[in-house]
Design brief:
Elements: E1 2-6, E2 9-16, E3 20-25, E4 31-37, E5 65-70, E6 85-89, E7 92-96, E8 105-113, E9 119-128, E10 134-144, E11 149-153, E12 170-172, E13 183-185, E14 189-193, E15 202-206, E16 212-217, E17 220-225, E18 241-245, E19 250-255, E20 259-261, E21 266-277, H1 285-291, H2 293-297
Antiparallel strand pairs: 1-2, 2-3, 3-4, 4-5, 5-10, 6-7, 7-8, 8-9, 9-21, 10-19, 10-20, 11-14, 11-16, 12-15, 13-14, 15-18, 16-17, 17-21, 18-19
Length: about 300
């Protein structure tokens, strides 16, 4: 770990091994602003004109990976412009935000990098500093760089008449248009392309029993995995993964189940990240099965 300047922020921290690096901002956050192979493109998106900013009258997305609390509402958009506490731990660091004065919730990320593999574990924690319980769900959002393709698996498939009952949930928003050409709705996978020329936002949520989602870009593949809690009630009509895109970004999002956090209590949400090299963007189910599934089995 080393302290670095990045994107105009004077106080950032870099974690690296001989394959990958990530950079955490300390001037704002908690936020991981970069993750990628050494000397290569950032797999995360960066919003030009916002990097290095520490003051604004409104919330800024910045880019990178952040932690929110679901369901989405006005309270979700608390501006994270204050410095965060960074503490070094074995193989990583812990980044802690001051409690949000508007919500009483404090956000924390514990980030650990493998010493010799392109793998990262992120533990997301929400801490309730109110004197009353709060019901919410941890929500981790990775802003991905433009021009790539996101992949979310559908649950194990079956045939009629043997498969009689539904196995998953698909959530759509009032602005979701499934005829939009950026969507690829297959039998086994949902694909979503990021198009910098298309300004119409799109979003979808999936109850994903496979527990992973991916983003292919820059001849590489970013994969996030998260444990599934079958007895949990998930937000947004019961989904644990969501995809959102507009002309600037594509977000690969995972959620934990809704929980009642008691005063001074916490809830955690884990993600496991891997990067794979020499991976083309899939165009359909067959490409995912050929290009991506073998990597997951490793």
């Amino acid at each position: 770990m080393e302290k670095v300047v990045y994107g105009g922020w004077e106080n950032c921290y870099r974690l690296a091994n001989d394959k990958v690096e990530l950079i955490v901002t300390a001037d704002v956050g908690p936020r991981i602003i970069r993750f990628g192979f050494l000397g290569r493109e950032n797999m995360f998106g960066e919003i030009k004109g916002q990097l290095g900013t520490t003051k604004s009258d409104s919330w800024m997305i910045f880019g990178g990976h952040r932690l929110w609390h679901s369901p989405e509402a006005a309270r979700t958009y608390y501006p994270d412009f204050e410095p965060v506490l960074v503490q070094e731990i074995e193989d990583g660091l812990v980044v802690t935000q001051k409690p949000e004065p508007t919500t009483g919730i404090q956000k924390q990320m514990e980030i650990r990098m493998s010493p010799d593999r392109p793998e990262v574990q992120v533990k997301h924690t929400l801490i309730n500093h109110n004197v009353w319980p709060v019901e919410t769900a941890p929500w981790s959002l990775s802003v991905m760089d433009v021009g790539g393709t996101a992949i979310v698996p559908l649950p194990p498939r079956g045939s009629h008449p043997e498969a009689m009952t539904p196995t998953s949930v698909l959530s759509i928003w009032p602005y979701t248009d499934l005829s939009d050409p950026r969507w690829g709705l297959g039998f086994r996978f949902v694909l979503l392309k990021q198009d910098s020329h298309n300004t119409v936002p799109q979003k979808i949520g999936v109850f994903n029993s496979e527990g992973w989602a991916a983003y292919a870009n820059h001849n590489a593949l970013f994969v996030k995995q998260t444990p599934l809690q079958f007895d949990g009630i998930y937000p947004d009509l019961g989904v644990n993964f969501e995809l959102f895109t507009n002309e600037m970004i594509l977000e690969v999002e995972s959620l934990g189940p809704l929980e009642m956090i008691p005063p001074k209590g916490t809830i955690d949400h884990f993600e496991y990240w891997t990067l794979h090299d020499n991976v083309s963007q899939p165009q359909n189910d067959e490409d995912v099965e050929k290009l991506i599934l073998p990597l997951l089995k490793q």
